[in-house]
Amino acid sequence: MTHVKIVEVGPRDGLQNEKQIVPAAVKLELIRRLADSGLRAIEAGAFVSPKWVPQMADSAEVLAALDPSGSVAYPALVPNDKGLEAALAAGAREIAVFGAASESFSRKNINASIADSLKRFESVVRAALDAGLKVRGYVSCAIACPYEGRIAPGKVAEVAAALSDLGCYEISLGDTIGVGTPASVRAMLDAVQKAVPAEQLAGHFHDTYGMAIANIRAALDAGLRVFDASVAGLGGCPYARGASGNVATEDVAYLLAGEGYRTGIDLSKLVGAAWYIADALGKPPASRLAHALGR
């Protein structure tokens, strides 16, 4: 049975885009429950400016309370050298850098062109690798951009290849505003895989139009075996009106189990984690499975 890895991004990418600030104790309990469900890669935080992203202001506290030497990886998002210093001080063993395939999105999101952002990441990735850390890369707007519309697959391939050349062991391709369909996903992956092999790629799909599960099925057919997902469908995209969060982890795990893939995830425990954080936020989970199975 083929193994598929799910990278849980709820505690970072999900909660970062929720309006309310969740206490560190609740984040840690969520992470504990996610790990107990069988997930082995859980984004724990982001070392970004608390002025701009107050939801992640306690990332050092959260990461320091975790054991990065065990069987679960706790990557943290790092935008620059200062963020890397903070991540290292908190005990990080893996970081992620965040690029984009859209010039407009890159400038509005991190105030830099694509070329400048990649140049900025050079020192971050080099220092991280020298310190023995693993580095993961993100490419946002891999299908479309809220400002530019559709993005050429070749542009996605260029950015993915650049991140790979920098030393990122894995490149996550994000449908940031959730407008992708299986056809557009296949076209994008066809282009990217001419520059970066499938075994180095991950899919990161938002579910704005209800296409995330179908897009994951298309990406599986294209050879991808790593997918990002967010427990309870947490989050959203602040750059696109009406854009929902990442596809719910429990829905992805259900799909993979039904298709015969091995994930190591206990669905009942995962659904329990979804209800836990949904209750903490005061809203129901966005996933179909959580409502089908109940509490």
> How many DSSP H or I helices?
12
Strand residue content: 5-15%
Q: What proportion of the residues is helical, as a percent range?
A: 40-55%
Tell me the Rg in angstroms.
Answer: 17 Å
Structural class: alpha/beta
- Oligomeric state of the chains? single chain
Question: How does the major sheet shape up?
Answer: 8 strands, parallel
**Unreliable sequence segments:** none
State the separation between the terminal residues, measured CA to CA.
Answer: 29 Å
Q: Largest beta sheet: what is the strand line-up?
A: 1-10-9-8-5-4-3-2
Mean pLDDT: 94
Total strands: the figure is 10
How would you spell out the order of helices and strands? Answer: EHHEHEHEHHEEEHEHEHEHHH
Apparent shape: globular
Walk me through what this model shows.
It is a single chain. Helices cover 43% and strands 14% of the residues. It contains 12 helices and 10 strands. α9 (212-221) links the parallel β9 and β10. The protein is globular, with a radius of gyration of 17 Å. The chain starts with a strand and ends with a helix.
